[in-house]
Amino acid sequence: MGLFSKDVNRAYYVVVTRYYTLFVGSWNTAVCVNRFTAIIWPLKYSQFWTRPTTTIVTLLILVYASFFQGMFLQNACWCSTSTMECVEYQVFSTYVVAISVIVHALLGLFLIMGALGIARWNGSLASQNIETKLMLQTLATTALSLCVGSTKFISMQKFYDGEIELHLITAQLGDIVLGMYSYVVIGGLFLASTSFREAYVSFFRCDSTCRTRSAKHKITQDRKGSVMVF
């Protein structure tokens, strides 16, 4: 819209991407903890993950991302990339975020692989088909989160090495992988969980609409059939 300069727009993009990356890393770890408890303590899962507990965890995730972002915004270069000093600061902040995401992803992989190993040892995995699917979905999102952190880490390292072209390429690749995260989460849940599909349809108020369309289609078929019979 031309309200801000290219420099401010670029800095704003970095701020938003940085916050979302921090959010994705911590959120994915919380999901891994959730899946871990579902597999290891299935009978106590509902006691652990009550609505108040889930609300508190969500708030902690938001506070975690905001805390890091708040520290980054203390620097005068947070809204600028016009000088080399500010560029180096933005790169350094992204470097810290990348390390944070990698640590979260490794912790998530440890939890998921540990839960799968324990469940397989106990012989309880085969009887929990839906949990197996959800665990595989979480494993896929965790691996994607690790790719996000790794590409951003490599990108920032290439900047310090003076390889600017590779820095830009890997930075763009990291943003693409980060953008894919939400699609993998929603798509994986949609394929793995019947309850999620039902909730998704109900949320968008498609249940009554779909039933109405189905009923109309059935009536049309019946009318066609009656014409053909008589």
From TrEMBL:
Q: Where are the transmembrane segments?
A: 20-41, 53-72, 92-113, 176-196
Keywords attached to this Swiss-Prot or TrEMBL record, sorted alphabetically, are:
Membrane, Transmembrane, Transmembrane helix
Entry protein name = G protein-coupled receptor
